[in-house]
Amino acid sequence: MNYNFDEVVCRKHTDALKLEALAPRWGRTDLLPMWVADMDFKTPTFIVEVMKKRMECEVFGYTVKPESWYEAIISWQKRRHKWTITKEMISFVPGVVPALAMAVQAFTQRGEKVMIQQPVYNPFAQVIRNNHRELINCPLELKDGQYHINFKLFEKKIKGCKLFLFCHPHNPGGRVWTREELEKIATICAQNNVIIVADEIHADLTLLPYEHIPFASVSEEAKQNSVVFASPSKAFNMAGLATSYAVIANPTLRRHFESYVEGNELAAGNVFAFNTVVAAYNKGEEWLQQMLTYVQGNIDEVVSYIKENIPQLKVIIPQASYLVFIDFSALQLNQKDIVALCTNRAHLALNDGSIYGEEGNGYMRINLACPRSVVRQALAQLKDAITSI
After folding, report:
1. What is the C-alpha to C-alpha distance for residues 281 and 291, in angstroms, rounded to an integer?
2. 142-187, pLDDT tens digit by residue?
3. Would the pTM count as exceeding 0.85?
4. What residues make up the domain containing 300?
5. Measuring CA to CA, which residue among 285, 308, 243 is closest to residue 51?
6. Residues in domain Aminotransferase class I/classII large (predicted)?
7. Residues 373, 338, 25, 309: what is their CA dihedral angle, to the nearest 10 degrees?
8. 10 part of a folded domain
């Protein structure tokens, strides 16, 4: 089956965050919304169909986790990522961001140190600060157009920390970490008694020729000292269904995490939380491959257009995800003026790079999970805005 990703879907009157937040956040509504990380593609029909089927029974009561949910996750991780897991390792969580906050609360105490690597997805810092832990930043280094870990600095910064929140693949830079890098992280954290929490929500968006390697699969150290969060929500455009899961091999860590989740009554999913995951993982591979091919075309379009028409900008080419980090620093504007340029001149709603840490100053993040006609419109508006400076 050939899927149509060129279709422009109207999301008005659906309470879509991407649209409803324009006025309160940007002060205007005449913007192309290319910010929050959901897709403007239709959620796949095989997911919609199981939701419709469930709705035929007009009772929406409490729901248990079916065996098919566990089986679909186990099979998907084995097929897609060569990772062998068991039912016992899997726990439901209502979303990866809530799960990050749960992990901070479950594994650390008020005032203890939690490390991240900025620039990084802004909730990483938020869940640390909002829960009154001390944020330790080990900045990533940009070399040859990609982010890298300074392991000498990593070893220094990790000392005294209780937890390391790891973005794998990276957001907003789109970096896919190598086995060697993952093994080093595992060894250093084990030596310093630091638990690794790996956010792998973008794993299924890894682009060719790169390969996502689940953190817990790289070594016994990684397996026994990590908590992995995953979900089909980004890959299949179902974030609004609030369905994710944790994979924790170490039974002691797992019991500790589950006791916190269950103690706060967060372990039960909604009525669509399980059948949609089963549909995505059992029927979604062809749709996913076509979508990734289309997104790669959008990325190629952006890279080529900017190189030819807006050479002042530089693109960090993602190895995973439909999110692209663009460097505006050559314009020699401060961050406030870069945001104003994109908003008031280009009429684009993009993510301000500074929200990912001070290392994001000079950057903006754009979401390319949309029809190519929208991408082309955004590029033309951006070119006109920069030309008018």
Report:
1. 15
2. 999 999 999 999 999 999 999 999 999 999 999 999 999 999 999 9
3. yes
4. 17-44+284-388
5. 243
6. 44-381
7. 0
8. no
Residue whose token pair is 């008694």: 193
What are the pLDDT digits (tens) for 223-254?
999 999 999 999 999 999 999 999 999 999 99
Residues belonging to the chain = 389
Same domain, 152 and 201: yes
Which of 228, 254, 282 delimits the end of a domain? 282
Contact of 169 with 203, CB cutoff 8 Å: yes
Structure token digits, residue 241: 């269904």
Residue 5: inside a domain, yes or no? Answer: no
Q: Are residues 147 and 26 in the same domain?
A: no
On whether the CB atoms of residues 20 and 349 are closer than 8 A, the answer is no
Which residues have C-beta within 8 Å of that of residue 318, sequence separation ≥ 6?
173, 174, 175, 207, 299, 324, 325
51 domain residue, yes or no: no
Instruction: State the Cα–Cα distance between residues 60 and 62, nearest whole angstrom.
Output: 7
Contact at 8 Å (CB) between 8 and 373? yes
